Amino acid sequence: MKLEAASASRLLERTGTDALTRADRALLLRHMLLMRLAEERGLTLYKQGKVPGSFYDGRGQEATCVGAAFTLGPRDRMCILHRDLGAHFVRGVTPDRYLANYMGREGGVTGGKDGNMHFGDRELGCVGMVSMLPDMAQVAAGIALSFKMRSEPRVAMTFFGEGSTANGQWHEAMNFAGIHRLPVVFVLENNQFAYSTPTELEFAVDPVQRAKTYGFPGVSVDGNDVEAVFEVARVAADRAREGEGPTLIECHTMRMHGHGAHDDMSYVPEELLEEWSRRDPIELYVRRLTEEHGFEQPEIEEIRSSVASYVDECAEKAVASPMPDPGIARDGVFAESWEPLGDGEAPWSRWSATEDQGGTPHNGHHASNGHGDAVVEHGRAA
Amino acid sequence: MAEMTYLQAISDGLREEMRRDEAVFCLGEDIGAFGGAFKVTDGFMEEFGADRVLDTPLAENMIIGACVGAAIEGMKPVAEMQFADFIACGFDQLVNVAGKLHYRQGVSVPMVVRLPSGGGFSGGPFHSQNPEAWFLQSPGLKVVAPATAEDAKGLLVSAIRDPNPVCYLEHKGLYRHVKGEVPEGDHAVPLGEARIAREGGELSVIAYGSSVPLALQAAEELDEDIEILDLRTLNPLDADAILASVEKTGKVLIAHEATRSCGVGAEVASLVSERAFESLDAPVRRLTAPDVPIPFSPPLEQSVLPQLDDMKEACRELLAY
Amino acid sequence: MSSSPTDTQLIEIVMPQMGVSVAEGTIVEWSKRPGDWVERDETVALVTTDKIDVEIPSPAAGRLAETLVEPGDTVDVGTPLAQLDAGARPGEAHPEEHQEEAPSAAPQEPKGRPDEETDRSGFHSPIVRRMADEHGIDLSGVEGTGIGGRIRKRDLVALIESGAETAAEPAETERPLHIESPYRPDEPAPAAAEAPSAAPAEAGNGAAPGGDILPGEQRESMSPMRRRIAEHMLESRRTSAHCTTIVEVDLHRVVATRRELKEAMKRRGVPLTYLAFVASAVVAELDRHPILNASIDGDEIVYHDDVNLGIAVALDSGLIVPVIRHAQRLSLEGLASEIGRLAQRARSGELEPNDVAGGTFTITNPGQFGAVLATPIINQPQVAILDLEAVVKRPVVIDDESEAIAVRPMTNLCMSWDHRALDGAEAARFLSGVKDRLEEWEL
Predict the structure, then answer these.
(1) Which candidate, A135, B52, C168, C439, has a CA 20 to 30 Å from the CA of B23?
(2) With an 8 Å Cβ cutoff, are C128 and B320 in contact?
């Protein structure tokens, strides 16, 4: 599917795609469930007093981050934000490390150095976010710049919310990417609210329409339709790899919980919440899988329960992880030497040497174990 | 060896590294076609191509942010802020992203930000600053400030090779006024090492950047037994060299053109009083600009920036104490 | 402006316990007056006990409300000396509030910003103090070339490099011959005496104590130290059965040894004196005559395991005897070093009560001032005290057979001892032993 650079079109209908195998579809569901259940567990731990600081989740936004991340190959890179836990899981971070990070434990991705979602496993090709938004958009543009300079068919993907498009750094990132036709995919998660601020107070013109002013296409998509997101992201990533420059993907979705666990969301109109609760991305996908792709209920249940017990295991492991040794607090300010980022997992069947049969447990589904040792052909898809 | 100005030495260092390592590239405003506001990158675009000598939009955060991203992925960007003062517009990316990534995530960010700093030419408040203290307060950033042509090249080369973000303060006043013999080819000066610019036994003047030639001239004209220590690197500070000099002389004057409060002088003074108390024969003094924006009109500017007479007077007072 | 009547909170400043066996102290002077603001730990008064001057620090910040004792008063430990209002605030200025420096033998830093005009000779920077400490320099004798006469580091460097005799070197070095200074000087200590023009002595010099009554007289009340010495000496004569035994000693081997060792020790910062040799011989010999390292307690003789050797040091204000503890453990160099160190501390007023306590035998050196015989008074509760008199070159018979005569540096060791504890034979044997050690000194 070609996108015209000159126009921005609203695509709310899903597009069919045969780029996904049955096994891929199961994985998509699996990853969304993993995010949902892991975050629910995190919230419980938070309420049990085990989480210092605040707790943020992306309930309702699972399709956006999973769908977009699923397109990436092992050598692609991501800057992941706080409501995109699913993207971390797609890349190979395990839920115990996520939960341990929230609890400030040694076993957390940053070992206690940073909290909540401010993490990114450098060995899985992820760069962790900072609080200032949308700083990571510029970093992603910088990463993309290096790909372009070395003529590598690789993509940098970054996420940000609609609120941060109000910030000058967003403009700088978009502008720079447009000038240099950088291989970057900007995923804009429009979840209606930036903390308590509704979109009409964040911008006068929908950002997706402003993409063209930076010289590249902006596309809207139903952020709760995982396959729609996947498809648009796939096209955008391929465009980037082929040297056609950036794309802005606006995913329409809804933040079903408060900005953080401390926020009761009383500023969100009831009807809005109700409307979107009927569009739960996981339930929507389960329905599609059973109705259109021949998945049986028992299979779905099996996926659900195996994810649930996996999350339980991970939670136990995380809780058992010790607090970090205070002695490390002064360590690691400076690097001794530069090391390349590792490659992330790339569960999409396009990236594997052999086809997965589906139904494999999450933590065994790729030989790579997150270290990118699977040799994959990145570049042209079959 | 070749005789070069400070400015030429910076170009030379940058050029050498770009030739030696393909990953090194420059970015900044007006550095490509125009050759840079101060002509440091004059001729670079012709030699290395527009890709490696990137003319950026007027967007400091983006410049720094691009450096971070590119550096993470193995490039070695050398950004130029047109004037050091403008780092304020890129501060967020520098301090919050570049400075903290390794600590939080173990990710190395090998980038250099060149900062043409300093006053003395009626540049006014926004073209004359010496903002190095801002970076000393931000963990994760290394800071260097050469005073000689040889060090201008050597420190830049080491900064480029360092796997961390390095702020490189090049003093504009030294560009054409400082000349020296500079080793050709591969020449690197290690970070974190000060240099004795002049040996002495009665007074230690600890200085960097533009204050070093000023101190040298003062010492010559006073014809006194004054030792001058050129810090060269501000973070990490060469504490051993500082303490050794104080041990020798017992009297310390710290000199920098940057404004007074919480500057390098304050840091060094504290180090000295903490660790060399029993070697002191006089109070530790600083010669700095006062805490004011640098004014534009020459008589005002000269009354604010430390002059040769100020340096001599400060030395005299301490020697007599 | 008077203090506002807010929260007056009076606390007492009491006479502290200084030194284990001290029961009382005498006020020398007040450093603060009623109405003065006092910082916590700031000196409020100077007190003396057993000839040691001690500064009394304030237990809290506040305003001195009232002093309860006068200079010259002697009170028991624990007696309230003054009252401090700890509830006062510094802003409530006493009209004559000022910072008064507590005078003491130790140099004080002047407060506030130095004025070019003021005398800065008493201000010693950290490096100056350190160098003085390391090299045993008495700063009161050093001329400063810094602002206001401040002693600068370079002044001490010059002093050390020139190898000049510094003030604190015990005056007994290299002066074995007659000197014209009096034994109990009222004038400044030997520090200033190195300049041949010693300040002319006042009433004490030459005038026999208790001698001629001259027409016209001047009265001066005794200083606390003087009074203490007077009491102690009288008490000692009343307690012990004083006898004095004297031996002549040929020091030529000691002189030669000293010549050999002196330079090396000097480089190590140790002044090697004849007193050190005597101390070494005495300490060794005491091991064979423990009765001389004992005390009398009622009907009992108390033998002490350690030799805690008291070394008498002449000060301008009197006499003080700091103690080298476990002297038996020290070598010649060790003794020389300790003698030098204690003497310097004594002269700069840095001794503490425990430095003068616990002595078991005392040696003194009036010979440095030229005397050749003396009958010292025992330092209670010891049983003996030994004087080293002046070293004088005399012709002596060095071989009984041939009756050959040589000129030798001779001295007398005069020991006063307590006949209650021992008899003349023992005293003589001890002294002979010391004599033999000195005369047969091996390098």
Answers:
(1) A135
(2) no
